[in-house]
Amino acid sequence: MCLNDCPTYRVLGNEADSPRGRVQLIRTLVATEAVPSDDLAAHLDACLVCRACETVCPPGVPFGRIMEGAREVLAERRKLGRVRGFLTRLGLGTIADHGRLALAARAADFYARSPLPAISRRIAPVAWLSSLAPKREGAPYRPAEKENADVCFFAGCVMRESFGESERATVRVVERGGHRVSAPVEQVCCGALHAHSGDGDEARRLARYNIDAFAGSENPIAVNAAGCGAHMKAYGDVLADDPAWRERARTFASRVRDLTELLKPTPSRTKRPLRVVYQDACHLVHGQRIRQQPRTLLRATLGVTLVEITDAERCCGSAGVYNLTHPEVSAELQGQKVASILAARPDVVVSGNPGCILQIAAGLRAVGSAVPVVHLARFLDDPAAF
Known about the structure:
Shape: globular
CATH superfamily of the largest domain: AF0625-like
CATH architecture of the largest domain: 3-Layer(aba) Sandwich
Largest sheet: 4 strands, parallel
Strand content: 5-15%
């Protein structure tokens, strides 16, 4: 059953690039302490970790956790080339460092607003990377702590630097529902990208930091990025082998809520009738089993006609940094998703994950479409703006 729902198997048609094929390769990997072959590593690296296989798996095999563990073993045993190793360390280090990430976000914003992307589109090797550079949504979001709050807010990394308006909209829609939101200033990156890349030590270090940062209350923790939320809900697994942190991690994970789990439908109105496509982020629909809550919120908005697309739960090809490491497969999945969206004739595309937003927006631009792609919180905050 998992083969048909695995995006990489559907694109590549190779049993080794399917969930059951990869499980067998992982069995081979952990059966010895040998250095893995390049072929084995390539098949495991090619996984999106979208977790679609978990949704259709009758016995509920936790494939995402298995793959994260396998990639940690890969990282321990194989030696990356100098250039690839440097770029991997640089990328993951930048994501986890607010100062460096802020510089990178400013550089990407400057690039995206300059004439350079139009030039880059003519240069095949850099055209794909160029298309994904994000423009900033206004000023970056800066966490602020408030007294007497009853909801905590996890601001994330890319979200706070490049999606500032969506972050502020998140706080507004939650507070409009009768809550008071506090965002601990000591919070750090959730560690999801590190876990997916096999850097388990750093993923665990970041998890401990966040557990401490949010330890000042027992309030629910609102998260507006699907990948962050899925990973933070799994902190109990991430730190399961650490006796000093295991219970604290489980308690923390039990507090994590996707934004849509906290909001109640509230009537608002668009300026004109809108056809809206909701893009299911993989780590929301497969990782957190959240499907109906976002749709219920959108349907409560007067003037919105929610239109479904074919293969709605199939990955768009973003998958963290997958669109940078595997551009060919990512581009194929992006094209499929964009074709499904355009067939629905939407006025707006809404999603709950920054990677999906950037990936789909780039795909729509590539085919000449001007349909806006926005975060769910931004749409719910002011549907009349669209």
